[in-house]
Design a protein that fits this description.
Order of helices and strands: HEEEEHEHEHEHEHEHEHEHE
Low-confidence stretches: 1-29, 359-364
Strand content: 5-15%
CATH class: Alpha Beta
Helix content: 25-40%
Strand order of the largest sheet: 1-2-3-5-4-6-7-10-11-12
Radius of gyration: 23 Å
CATH superfamily: Alpha/Beta hydrolase fold, catalytic domain
Mean pLDDT: 88
Number of domains: 1
Length: 364
């Protein structure tokens, strides 16, 4: 029979356990996900032909596709995760040919913007969008102004439009918005992401080896994979930040009541359909409806760059011309004034993968 531990021994064991947990907590805190927050503002924001200068002096590369005459509408487009403003090259050129000006800037941490690869936080991305929208509206007074967000950009737009100071706009276009919140991820995935983000936040991962196709446009994917401005190796803490953003975007859906066109591909293997359709069903109902959803049966995640990208671009132009008329493609489904009026959007058993990565782009 063993001897009972003395009170001193019990206290010493309890202290050692406390010390162990305290060290572990301090270690996790020391390795918390890194946020590259903006500096203190010291100048007025400015826009030139090829750069946005923010109040803290950050220079965000700007691309613009302008029609020959005064534009009949202006689109400000936000790119997706690991991508940059060049994502809208084809769409911007086509829209310019039809009288619509398109602007796109590299968001912080992406493309040619400062602190490449580092995550800047939800509020930073939202505030940058507010600022750029103000600058561009001032450049085109009286011209209908629209904001488009693709994937991660769509999540930023949703947060901005449901914030206390939403940008002034005539309508929102969401292209495969990133709304894959943690509630729709398997537990092992969220747990492993949290652990990695709090222990090895600097570690980098790729989408190589994941059998996920972001588009059916193979030639485009090859150019995408060779583009040095596209991030191929992603920091764990940046993925953690993206998931935080997707969580917040999904939660914002019940407050997202701005007139909008929401585009999604049935073959999207990057943002699953379950959270996407859940977001759509949570949108506020109006009579007449203000939200229009277009579901493309042959569409992938990169809808504007898919082989049927021109069809999607024409739908966007038609919606800008008259948001109440059916889209040329016939893919639209207006969201009704009550849940029972909403079109049935059935989810499928989509593939699960690491959030934030565009698999298959290294060697398409």
């Amino acid at each position: 029979m063993g001897m009972s531990p003395s009170p001193t021994g019990v206290r010493r064991t309890a202290f050692h356990r406390f010390a162990l947990w305290a060290c572990l907590a301090l270690g996790l805190a020391a390795c918390a996900p890194h946020l590259q927050l903006p500096g203190k503002p010291y100048i007025a924001p400015q826009v030139s032909d090829d750069v946005i200068t923010t109040p803290d002096g950050a220079r965000l590369p700007l691309r613009a596709w302008q029609p020959e005459d005064t534009p009949r509408a202006v689109i400000l487009a936000l790119h997706g995760f690991n991508d940059y403003s060049n994502a809208f090259e084809d769409a911007g050129q086509m829209w310019a040919d039809h009288g619509i000006a398109t602007y796109a800037y590299d968001q912080r941490g992406f493309g040619g913007a400062p602190n490449r690869g580092l995550w800047s936080g939800n509020e930073t991305y939202v505030e940058d969008l507010r600022m750029v929208a103000r600058l561009l509206r001032s450049r085109h007074p009286g011209v209908p102004f629209y904001i488009l967000g693709e994937s991660m950009g769509g999540a930023v737009v949703m947060l901005a439009m449901t914030s206390g100071a939403p940008p002034e706009t005539d309508g929102i276009i969401l292209v495969a918005p990133a709304v894959w919140g943690r509630d729709y991820m398997p537990f092992y995935q969220t747990a492993s992401l949290w652990m990695a983000a709090h222990t090895i936040p600097w570690a980098r991962v790729t989408g190589e080896g994941l059998s996920i196709r972001p588009s059916d446009n193979i030639e485009m994917l090859r150019r995408f994979s060779r583009d040095p401005m596209v991030i191929k190796e992603t920091r764990i803490d940046a993925i953690h930040g993206l998931v935080d953003l997707m969580d917040a975007a999904l939660e914002s859906a019940p407050k997202f009541d701005k007139r909008s066109l929401i585009l999604y591909g049935r073959k999207d293997e990057v943002v699953p359909d379950n959270p996407t359709f859940a977001m759509i069903k949570q949108l506020p109902r109006h009579n007449p409806p203000v939200h229009k959803v277009a579901i493309y049966d042959k569409g992938y995640h990169m809808l504007l760059r898919d082989l049927q990208g021109e069809t999607v671009m024409r739908d966007v132009m038609a919606w800008i011309d008259d948001p109440d008329r059916p889209l040329p493609s016939g893919a639209d489904k207006p969201v009704g004034k009550a849940p029972q009026d909403t079109p049935r959007l059935e989810a499928t058993d989509g593939k699960q993968h690491a959030p934030g990565l565009l698999p298959g782009v290294e060697r398409p």
